[in-house]
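In this section we walk through a basic example: taking a raw amino acid sequence and producing a predicted 3D structure, encoded as discrete structure tokens. The instruction is simple. Fold the sequence below.
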Amino acid sequence: IMLGQGVLRDGRSLHEAYGCDLDKLVEGDRVGVMRTSQGDLKFYVNGECQGIAAGNLPQILYAVVDMYGKCAQVTLTAPSTPDS
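The resulting token sequence is shown next.
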């Protein structure tokens, strides 16, 4: 889970200061998530990789979007990878 500026895995904190602060995003900003072929989880904000958030992930994952704060709308787009 990426929230604010931290990352949780199974309810435990992995990073307390990871990437940019999600609470400071504004309308039109984009957040992406990718599981690499090496099993790492990476988040992207406006196309910029925030680094490895977690590693050793299973091959099949499910995404969940939880809207909070001032967020009023989320748009899911077709998958794309920044490296391609």
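Looking at the output, two observations stand out. The chain has a mean pLDDT of 86. The two ends are 25 Å apart (CA to CA). In the next section we compare this with other chains.
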